[in-house]
Amino acid sequence: QGRRDEAQGLSRGCHVTPPVNLHIQPCHVVQSKSDKYSYRISRGRFSVTAISLDVYLPMRSSEVKNRTSTGDITSLRVITAVKTPYLPDGRFDLEAYDSLINMQIEGGAEGVIVGGTTGEGHLMSWDEHIMLIGHTVNCFGTKIKVVGNTGSNSTREAIHATEQGFAVGMHAALHINPCYGKTSVEGLISHFEAVLPMGPTIIYNVPSRTGQDIPPAVIEAVSSFSNMAGVKECVGHERVKCYTDKGITIWSGNDDECHDSRWKYGATGLISVVSNLIPGLMRKLMYEGENTALNDKLLPLMKWLFCQPNPIALNTALAQLGVARPVFRLPYVPLPLEKRVEFVRIVESIGRENFVGQKEARVLDDDDFVLISRY
Q1: Reported pTM
Q2: Which residues form the signal peptide (predicted)?
Q3: Which of 123, 150, 250, 320 is the most exposed place for a label (fewest CB within 10 A)?
Q4: Residue 108 included in any domain
């Protein structure tokens, strides 16, 4: 019985090594240096060849499977930190997610951050996180650049997640500085030096969340790495100019500052929350020269989106637009009623046609929202 099971496994194409006492005739039809690993078993009219694992060598951690160059990342001007929608039981709503990515592509966004702060990567298991990166690459990787948030406050974890992210095909990694367990300047440099060799990398500086600024000395120390794509910078215009004067690629991390950072201080573009809602207008803001009138028109929306910590307002807005279900993974909860009413007025002032989705913006009742604590 054991021999029959082995033979049946081979006939199904399973990658197994036959036992020494199983008499299977070597395949003499395929003439190659791998003949000694090929075996043929007859089953009816057809034959199936099973090939041992030796033919498919496992990928070493130093072998990066990214699909783009660092230069292709540094040319991107609009990258959306994309929202992760949920089903009522708390699992990912991949249908809504795919629709949202398609809206980003149609609106002119050139890249997406998967599982970032906005995408609630910190509420995901690493299995969920890597799956979502791989899903995004598989479905949209030829149309938009996929940047996986594989950063961590643990260098060991950041290395492992980044290896997995590049293994499933992400184009670049986003790395934050270690948060809560803060380290020294030398420790920051060593942390980034450990992950930069794996593939194109964007470093993310947001002291309001990490509790620690990444000083220019750290960025300058790692800027010589060929995989160093640039910095998502949230400190402000002067820091942006400090880097652009040195030829370091910078994306504004603040939607409300992105216009001036781009056109007055030399930023390449923006890694945006607002572009989840209005990708076409954000592309126009980053590509078509100074446009203070458009920027001023969008500022109320930008300020509304950050009236509470991101992504609370964005999650609420996408639910109001009918683009995502009104499902929140705790500890996030929706904005209060008066803020939801304000959003509908903002949509009307900017024009519903400029927002993602097809449904009219609704206020929604408190009872419409689902809060998930275990998922």
Answers
A1: 0.83
A2: none
A3: 123
A4: yes
